[in-house]
Amino acid sequence: MSGPPPPAFRGIDPATIPAAEAYALLTGCVAPRPIAFVSSLSKTGVANLAPFSFFNAGGASPPSVVFTPVTSGANRDKDTLHNVRETGEYVVHIVPWSLRERMNQASADYPPEIDEFEAAGFTKTPSARVKPWRAAECPIAMECRLFRIVEHGAGPYHANYVIGEVVYFHLAERVMSGHRVDAAKVEAIGRLGGPNYTRVTADSIFAMPRPTLPGG
User: Fold this and answer.
1) What would the pLDDT profile of 102-145 be if each residue is shown by its tens digit?
2) What are φ and ψ of residue 85, in 5° steps?
3) This model's pTM is above 0.85
4) Which of 103, 115, 155, 192 has the fewest Cβ atoms surrounding its Cβ within 10 A?
């Protein structure tokens, strides 16, 4: 007895399409993506605050994170990357549902002399180990020192992997359950393709313990 026909697939060689189209495909495929809301300081002391959805954790010894400005030409990409290159310090925040509109406002293409903390309505509060401010409204902030920037490709949309060591955590008590961060309490938002987002809620979380093999 024959089963259903195999699903149809579309094959695309990324070398044959424009970088902007490849970017759209990639952001549609790799979803949802957590958002790094990154604060940095210029050498002259101008604060910058911008979101990046190419972001994830790296390792834990030492704890590390990576985010990727894609050099699209937007000031938010250029300013953050330039500041981190020059100073080697930044703060990565996690954005909850309640701050989605203000985070989105900070993503506007402001010129380098504009302070996005002020433009988007965030409160500056001192960090413990690095010079860039952190946003007091964000329930999670990770102070980072630059380990390395790895460039991949050239031209618009090429990647700059910013790898940083987390040197200090700020965790709001309201998102903690014992010694662990409770994802349902954070209600972090994530990025999909295009202008679309999603969020973590208590109803969207499910547990799936890793299987134990016989004799393991």
Assistant:
1) 999 999 999 999 999 999 999 999 999 999 999 999 999 999 99
2) -60, -40
3) yes
4) 155
